[in-house]
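I'm curious: can you give me some protein's one-letter sequence along with its backbone structure tokens because I've never seen that pairing?
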Amino acid sequence: ALAYSNCTIELLKVSSLGHFIEMEILLDDQANEKEVSQAIQQLEDIKGQLSLSSYSVEPRYYIEMLREMEN
């Protein structure tokens, strides 16, 4: 994993699914709407800096995608 500012970035290979880049910013459970919006914007900015803007965000868990493949 790579630490970039307050963001953690990790390149993963998930069997049967392929490669993924995980990016996360951890917020306190008490984070307000403004803090969440700022974190989302920061993630979008980092995507742009890494030339990843054209890639979509996958909202599902890996296990969900694997189960869908089984069906």
User: Anything to note?
Assistant: Strands lie at 2-4, 7-14, 18-24. Helices lie at 33-49, 62-70. The radius of gyration is 14 Å. DSSP finds two helices and three strands in the chain.
